[in-house]
Structure formats: C-alpha cells, structure tokens
Amino acid sequence: MSLTSYIAVGSVIIDDIVYPDGRTSMGVLGGGGAHAAYGIALAGEKPALVGLVGQDLPAEIRARLERDFDTSGLVWVEHPQLRGWQIFEWNGLRNEIFRVDVIEPFMYGPDADEGSIPFADARGFTLLRGPSHVASWRARFPGAVLLWEPVRVFMLSADHEAFLSGIP
C-alpha cells in the first residue's frame, strides 16, 4: 500500500521552449500532470504522479521525477517520450508543436483500470483529462476529493454538453 495521499493524473512532456525574444530553454520537464504534482508539492506533500512515460525519457528528468514524486504510478511505454516545442509570442499566445509521431497515449493514458497503479487510499487527486474519463477515475478513487481540469479541447462553448457530461 502506498502512503501517498495526493495524486496528479496527467501528462509528462519534455518541453523545448522558445521565448518571444528568441531565447530558448531546452529539455524542460512539463506537462499538466507534472505541473499539478508540483502544485501539490508546494502544499508540503510528496505527491504521486500518474501518467505515461516513453522509453527514452532522459535520465536527468527521470531522476528529478523520482526525487520529487512517488513515481510508482508512472507507466512505461515503448514509444519515444512526448516532446514538443512551446513557442511563446509577445501577446501571450503559445503555440505547441509536438516533435514525436505518437501523441495520443501520453495525453489520455493510462486508463483508470490500469492494474499497476497503487494509491487506493488517496485523499485527493487532480485529473487532467476529458469528460469521458472522469467517471472511471472517480470510481478508481471513490473516497478522494477530485480536482478536475478539463483538457483545452473541451473549453469551447460548442462542447458545453460534453463538458457537462464529466461533472459527477
């Protein structure tokens, strides 16, 4: 049994950032799951991170994840690690360009019924997924407080009904 009380379910991305002035920051740990986990850590907890990681995840990123989080919820897959350019404009606009061919599993995996994910006694979890994923994750951690952050594609007025379908 894990002693982790708080979980962040979401993506792990390696970001190559281009700032409006041309400066760059390459190989930066990113992704909504990692960001949410660091938010939990700011509250003094050592959170668990649940997501998919690729077979070529850089060693220094893996070491950082293992230092900062309980990584027993990470599921390793035989794809290159999700990586993307994050290009920021002066007006605050961000353009994301993925640099790998396989993207989808990293954005929505693992499934809530993945047997290797521990944390049955979690007190709270963040979920960065679409509405169709909320019920299964809610069932996985029925006693935990859920903080749901819908993925961006559902933040449009045309998707209002789909968005509402995720609200328990």
Give an account of the 3D structure:
Helix 2 links the parallel strand 4 and strand 5. The mean pLDDT is 90. The chain starts with 5 loop residues before the first strand and ends with a helix. The protein is of the alpha/beta class. The chain has one domain. The strands form 2 sheets. It has a 5-stranded parallel β-sheet with strand order 5-4-1-8-9, with helices on both faces. A 4-stranded mixed β-sheet has the order 3-2-6-7. Helices cover 23% and strands 30% of the residues. 29% of the residues are buried.
Globally, the shape reads globular
Mean pLDDT level: 90
Low-pLDDT runs of 5+ residues are none
Number of strands: 9
- SS-based structural class? alpha/beta
User: End-to-end distance, in Å?
Assistant: 27 Å
Strand order of the largest sheet: 5-4-1-8-9
What is the percent of helical residues?
10-25%
Following the backbone from N to C, one meets helices and strands in this order, namely EEEHEHEEEHEHEH
Please give the domain count: 1
Computed Rg: 16 Å
Q: Helix tally?
A: 5
> Oligomeric status of the shown chains?
single chain
Largest β sheet strand count, sense and barrel closure:
5 strands, parallel
